[in-house]
Amino acid sequence: MRKFKIIFFPLFTGLISFSQAKYHNISSNILGEDRELKILLPRSYSEDDDKAYPVIYEFDGSIHCAMPAHAIPKALESIFFIFQPITKKEYNESILKLEGSPVVYLEDKYAEIKNLFGIEKQIIINDFKAVAAAIKKKQKWEYYEELSKLARDNYPETVLSKYYKGLYLENIGESKKAMKTFQSGYILEEIGGITKDLMLEKAEAIKKDFGY
């Protein structure tokens, strides 16, 4: 008896290790026999919520091969889009068009990765920079403070949090506090092109402008 399965495609990610399996038997009037249906679900899946997940269908038998060949790339693109760093397209079409906080968007992106894949992924520097660029472009300075807190949670030993906190204070008119914040980053580790020299340059520029 042939069998077919519906699965989350495991070839690239090893999702099976993060899945729960369910089995169902269905009757085929055309074939006149029962078939076993195997469904692999994300570990976070629950029948009590309405959360939707991408699906890949895997069939047995060569007669079905043409459809998965077309379906798999699209399904993989859907599944792994959220796993990728923020792209230029995502930045322009999603982040810049947000009415709310881009920092919340970033947090939700990584929470979704955990829900889908069972992986606690650290927020990468590229994504911090993308969100910071959106904050600057839209001049929503209050979000720098949120980004600073998120940076402190993810990279506590680096200058990242102090850098965003300094930008927040500088742009809301708290220049003296901003200067001291930039200066305080000198003892921390450099990261993602944000150097100790840059922090001191920011502090010196404020000092020169305001005569502190």
Properties at a glance:
2 domains, disordered N terminus, alpha+beta, 8 helices, four-stranded mixed sheet, 212 residues
Please tell me the CATH architecture of the largest domain by its name: Alpha Horseshoe
Could you tell me the mean pLDDT? 81
Give the tally of β-strands: 4
CATH topology of the largest domain: Serine Threonine Protein Phosphatase 5, Tetratricopeptide repeat
Percentage of residues in helical conformation: 40-55%
Runs with pLDDT <50, length 5+? Answer: 1-18, 62-68
Assigned CATH superfamily of the largest domain: Tetratricopeptide repeat domain
Cα-to-Cα separation, first versus last residue: 83 Å
Shape: elongated
N-to-C series of helices and strands: EEEEHHHHHHHH
Strand content: 5-15%
Strand line-up of the largest beta sheet: 2-3-1-4
Tell me the radius of gyration.
Answer: 24 Å
Secondary-structure topology with pairs:
Elements: E1 4-7, E2 19-28, E3 33-42, E4 56-58, H1 66-81, H2 88-95, H3 102-117, H4 125-138, H5 142-154, H6 160-171, H7 175-184, H8 196-210
Parallel strand pairs: 1-3
Antiparallel strand pairs: 1-4, 2-3
Helix pairs in contact: 4-5, 5-6, 6-7, 7-8
Give your account of this protein's structure.
With 212 residues, the chain is α+β, with helices and mostly antiparallel strands. It has two domains: 4-81, no CATH class; 88-210, Alpha Horseshoe (Serine Threonine Protein Phosphatase 5, Tetratricopeptide repeat), CATH 1.25.40.10. It is 49% helix and 13% strand. The protein has eight helices and four strands. The chain has helices at 66-81, 88-95, 102-117, 125-138, 142-154, 160-171, 175-184, 196-210, and strands spanning 4-7, 19-28, 33-42, 56-58. The chain has a four-stranded mixed sheet. Helix 7 packs antiparallel against helix 8 (196-210). The longest helix has 16 residues, at 66-81. The radius of gyration is 24 Å and the shape is elongated.
